Amino acid sequence: MPAVNTVLVVGGGPAGTAVSILLAQAGVAVELVEVKPDATAIGSGITLQGNALRVLRQLGVWDQILSAGYPFDSLGLRAPDADGTLLVEMPDARTGGADLPATVGMPRPELARILLDRAAEVGVKFRFGTTHTALAQDDSGIDVSFADGSTGRYDLVIGADGIRSWTRRALGIELETRSTGMGIWRAFTGRPESVVRTDLIYGGPCYIAGYCPTGQDSLYAYLVEDAQDRSVLTPEQQLAAMRELSTGYHGPWDLIRELLDDPSSINYTWFETHVLEGDWHRGRVVLIGDAAHSCPPTLAQGAAQALVDAAVLAELLIGAHDLDEQLWAAFTARRFDRAKAVVDASNQLGQWLLDHERGDVPALMGRISALVSVPA
After folding, report:
1. Could you tell me which of 246, 300, 254 has the C-alpha nearest to residue 72?
2. Which of 214, 20, 4, 50 lies closest to 118, judged by CA?
3. Residue 61 — pLDDT band, cuts 50, 70, 90?
4. Tens digit of pLDDT for each residue in 213-233?
5. Is pLDDT above 70 for 129?
6. Please, what CATH class does the domain formed by 6-70+104-177+272-373 belong to?
7. Quick one: DSSP state of residue 255?
């Protein structure tokens, strides 16, 4: 019998929906609250590495992911020259195992829809447009008050509510989320036939220029620059700024640039990072995903690490009889060091670029690939 019978999950992203699915499949009564009115309308594209795909298969959604996304097994490096010369195409690590692709790119809203549909199928109850306003713990449970005036009592609350987690703040946890010094332009648009994998260009007017196919007819492209306040720009000005930056890149970028014509498809964010040191729980409340650790997308491991958090936590809750310190110690032992290693490596890659330092990128990426290839 699982260690918990009733669970409140806060946050409808990959971490929250994944842990909800796994617990509900085991017979736990799960309620998921999401402050946004529609969790499927957020974001452009997402890169899912093999270790993320391994968890998605465990959730029972692999066929839908494969149908909605674009799988590929290699990584290209191009030069910032007038032709966008392909320097090398290399096999990418299959971190989910030999029977899964190295990578799947897909539209982020499609991933959200697939996970939410699966959660509903296994009995998770949803409440959108609200979140908790108070958490009161005792020895046997947690009384929760919600913004809509309702209340509930649960054995456990899982805070999967993102980098600026309200659950984390409600627990009084002080955690510095800092900018790494980089900003990223992202655009979701059509896919030229020549784009069949992620290609990266280092140098030129930006630190990184890249793209990832997300379907037969779509991709997302990105440009990484020094972090700037781009919020003063109108959507039309943002589109013009990204197009102008992209003129420093060629090859497939010349085709992509012609497709960048929709201001609403452009977004700009800063790279941010944090790691919650020590335990990620306080009594009967636990944090997972970006609420506990967040890394810039230099290794494309953010979603993967959130999904692995969910899988490990669910496994421990389902396999234990009590919600005790032994369970929490096991969760910390299996997740903290590994998640921190990924965050630190992601930050190191960015710092080398900021410092114009030629670090040992292949060794670092090889070390992290080996680490995440082994299930946590």
Report:
1. 300
2. 20
3. very high
4. 999 999 999 999 999 999 999
5. yes
6. alpha beta
7. H
Instruction: Supply φ then ψ for residue 98, to 5 degrees.
Output: -65, -20
What is the C-alpha separation between 293 and 297, in angstroms, rounded?
A: 13
Taking the C-alpha atoms of residue 113 and residue 270, their distance in angstroms, rounded to an integer, is 26
- Summarised one tens digit per residue, pLDDT across range 149-175 is 999 999 999 999 999 999 999 999 999
Q: Around Cβ 269, how many Cβ atoms within 10 Å?
A: 14
Where do the domains of the chain lie? 6-70+104-177+272-373, 182-270
Q: Is-above-0.85 flag for pTM?
A: yes
CA separation for the pair 158, 32 (Å, rounded): 9
Q: Assign domain 182-270 to its CATH architecture.
A: 2-Layer Sandwich (3.30)
**Axis-axis angle for helices 14-25, 108-121 (nearest 10):** 20
Radius of gyration of the chain (CA): 21
Strands (E), the chain: 6-10, 29-34, 45-49, 70-72, 74-78, 86-91, 103-107, 125-128, 132-137, 142-146, 151-154, 156-159, 178-189, 198-203, 206-215, 218-226, 266-275, 281-282, 285-287, 293-294
Which pLDDT value is given to residue 43? 75
